Amino acid sequence: MAGLDPVLPDPPSPTVPTDPTTALERAMEEARTRAITALEPVMPLLVDLGRVFAGAGFELSLVGGPVRDAFLGRRSADLDFTTDARPDDTVRLLKAWGDAHWEVGRDFGTIGARKKDVVVEVTTYRSESYDPDSRKPEVAYGDDLVGDLSRRDFTVNAMALRLPSLDFADPHDGLTDLAAGVLRTPGTAERSFSDDPLRMMRAARFAAQLRMRVAPDVVAAMTAMAARIAIVSAERVRVELEKTLLAADPVAGLRLLVDTGLAEHVLPELPALQLEIDEHHRHKDVYEHSLTVLQQAIDLEGGDVPGPDLLLRLSALLHDIGKPRTRRFEEGGGVSFHHHEVVGAKLVAKRLKALRFDNDTIKAVARLTELHLRFHGYGDGEWTDSAVRRYVTDAGPLLPRLHKLTRSDCTTRNARKAKRLADAYDDLEARIARLREQEELDSIRPDLDGTQIMALLGIGPSRVVGRAYQFLLGLRMDRGPLGAEVAERELRAWWAQQPEAAPDVDGA
């Protein structure tokens, strides 16, 4: 949903009276026009499937996200339907209608099918609620569309298109809210969040994706019920957090999570960045700095790091989470955060593991956090070619993201300092490019491989081979390409100093 906002009426001019009712109605009519255009390519399929269910005596409606997205002027990637048919009947009908079907969501009343290149999911009218002592939602089937819509998370998702008649059902004025850019719940927010606490995180996600204003009563309920999110599985929480971070305006969603207290339960390291600033303001607001870095990283996406990029955004948000643990007030009035990048990398790995992120993501974000300060000091003294090589090899395939993270980490209001840092990083990137032209910098290897090392030293596979390899790699990093002859000479000299060396190897 990133990048597409509801088309709202222009704000009224302070000097020209505007009738807000007329403006809202105009926005709603424009939304209807967009919906017709967006649904036109799939309309034959919608009507056809609706007739299949109607012919069997069942109701069928397009519902939720696809309807909302149509009013926003685009076709949804998913086609979600709701019906009064029970799963057994839905399976029978979809099996006859589609080219393939699946039942992985059957426990929740959802059956999927594919016809040609179109995928649909049909769910029996239902309600979901959580037992206070269980992480799994309980599912109960309903009997009518209006009842099903009343149990949806937000009014903008509680709209439906009845099929095959194409009658629009909007019992909770979701279209009005969509046009006005307001996020409300169909019933009371407390009831909605009690049924499924994850909806509180969805509110933050929709604020980020659709740039909608969250109604005050919804915010109040989120604040009062924040601790209830603990009943939801880490996997479901992670999915919502990912969607928020990958949205058009993740900062808005993250602020809502922090302001309501939800972040204390799902990402406590983020509100912990709101360090109390000493009266002399000797360090910046780390929380605001981190949100600014995130936004600047988003602005830098593109090229070799196309957006939205989860690794870059996670790293930008979390790069300084080691600061609260490492803050020290020094004699003379200074404040230090020594080794906060190392501490932060460990905290990142711990939190992302708790949220059930995959190992590759955990390792990448922790590594970027650990490396984000490496550049600082480049402008204060000339790096050797060896230092540049190590910077590149330590970053490995994360180098393009490290470039963008390091650049986005500059939030100073001092224009001269900002330009000096940008110029220094420009210079570093230029040096990397020059070295890359001279050698294969991305895949630096010693001048001798493992097989050659074993043959030269007369040893078999062992840890000693690895030590020898690292020795040669260090020489390669420090001095550039050596050539086989020099590498052999250096290796023999190194080997002569090792306790495992045989007495006849140095000249053999």
UniProtKB/TrEMBL annotation:
Occurrences of domain HD (ranges): 286-428
CDD domains reported for this sequence: HDc, NT_ClassII-CCAase
* Any one GO biological process: RNA repair
Specify where the region named Disordered lies, as residue ranges.
1-20
According to its UniProt record, this protein's enzyme class is transferase
Q: Which GO terms describe its molecular function?
A: ATP binding; metal ion binding; poly(A) RNA polymerase activity; RNA binding
Q: Where is the composition biased (Pro residues)?
A: 8-17
Task: Give the highest taxon in the source lineage.
Answer: Bacteria
Which Gene3D superfamilies does its entry note? Beta Polymerase, domain 2, cca-adding enzyme, domain 2
Which Enzyme Commission numbers does its entry carry? 2.7.7.19
Q: Record's PROSITE patterns?
A: HD
**Transmembrane domains' residue ranges:** none
InterPro entries reported in the protein's UniProt record: HD/PDEase_dom, HD_domain, HDIG_dom, NT_sf, PolA_pol_head_dom, PolyA_RNA-bd, tRNA_adenylyltransferase, tRNA_CCA-adding_enzyme
User: Which cofactor names does the annotation list?
Assistant: Mg(2+)
UniProt entry keywords in alphabetical sequence: ATP-binding, Magnesium, Metal-binding, Nucleotide-binding, Nucleotidyltransferase, RNA repair, RNA-binding, Transferase, tRNA processing
Q: Entry's SMART domains? A: HDc
Identification of the protein by name: Poly(A) polymerase
Which lineage ranks, top first, belong to the organism behind this chain? Bacteria, Bacillati, Actinomycetota, Actinomycetes, Kineosporiales
